[in-house]
Amino acid sequence: MAESAITGLGIVSSLGQSVSDFSKSVLRGDCAIGDISDIVEPTQRVRIGAPVRGFKPTEHFDSHTLRHLDRFSQFAAVAARQAWAQAGLAATAIPAHRIGVAIGTGVAGIDILDDGFRRIHVRHSKPYPFTVPMTMGNAPASQIAHELGVRGPTFGVTSACASAAHAILLGHKLILSGEVDIFVVGGTDSCFSDGFLRAWDSLRALSPQPCRPFSIDRCGLSMGEGAGILVLESMQLARKRGAVLRGRLVGGGMSSDAGKILVPDASGMELAIRTALADAKLVADDIDYVNAHGTGTVANDKMEAAAINAVFGARQIPIKVSSTKSMIGHCMGASGAIEAIATLVALEKQIVPPTVNVIAPAPDCPIDITPNVPVAQPMACAISNSFAFGGINATLIFGKAE
Amino acid sequence: MNIAAMTPQREREVLQQRILAFLQSEIQDKTVTLRMEMPLEDVAVDSVDIMHVLFKVEEEFKIQIELAPNNRFSTVGDIVNTLIDLIPPRQ
Asked: A247 or B64: whose pLDDT is higher?
């Protein structure tokens, strides 16, 4: 089996700014989605979400560095430091060019861009001089490479809500190719600028209550934000240096619906899951848990349930499924990485995190969504789905650390 | 402060201190206290720092400065004096 070791995890989330805090909250089903009236403008219609609270940039960066880091880059750099420290790589002599960085973002530097437009149109001034390098989608990857002093392939990845999953999978494939030994991968997004929230409101995709994935009366997603970072490492190197594994990435699949930009398609999702299983040389019965994309929109959840049933529906005992977005909202380009971490801690603790806010399972989503209460069960492998606007799909398969 | 009531000489001194403070806040090495005669290479002032100072001057004095960041400066005073000359006198 061609797999990568996962030797470090880092997170900045609405349910904690350490993996241990996040793990405790996710595995008991805490919900961070709540009133955001204190951080949005009075005329903003969107009044709920799951922002990262208590993140103080000056605790993490000096003023000189903060001049050119937008919030999404700050999240990613802080999470990467956690992951890097946990991997224990600082003291090793791995050549810098054998380590890469791939960070997904769906939104990129919207905060500074939003501020720039206000300066132009409201204050008749000009944008902050560093708007361009702060906004660019590769800014988080570049900052991480700079901080860690790594010199291998470094790039941003963008595919809306599948960005992080694509970044993780690209890093994994480059390790397997032999081009690098280590990849710092993940995703990040900062999503509570006024303009960005208004754009989502205009799309009419936001739920007026905390989102209820796979539930009856579900009516949209809740906005989230944050960053998740994983240190992927060649299994050979991890074993050789005696690294402690947080889990294993055993395979993944990517697909496109080749369909409509906003309409999800079960066959494209199913293709991603089946491709991932084939990549990992596993069959449906080898998977013990599905960490769903589970946005809470009527269309996504119905299509995802159909795709899950198409692959796993023949099992005697229905596979456990849950949506982390019910707790932390939709973290856009970061969601694939934050949910990968949720999947890994589920495997580590052998607890299926619940889908919270469920009134009752929806008849159009006939799957076991682990409603409201976590369930302990033995698990060896689990999948994490990311299905993006644009009909772009990615499924990752994780194995528990042996 | 009431710049309008100052003599031209005093006004220039006040602007000098203001711009020097802008530049001081941008440099990374907080142990350095900038003085006009200091060579830029000794105090690690780079083009990015200068861009930030230009922006602050533009914001504070509500002016547009036409100055490329590659403009050659060799001392702290070169930057400060160039910027002072670009700020229109108060009426």
From this structure: A247
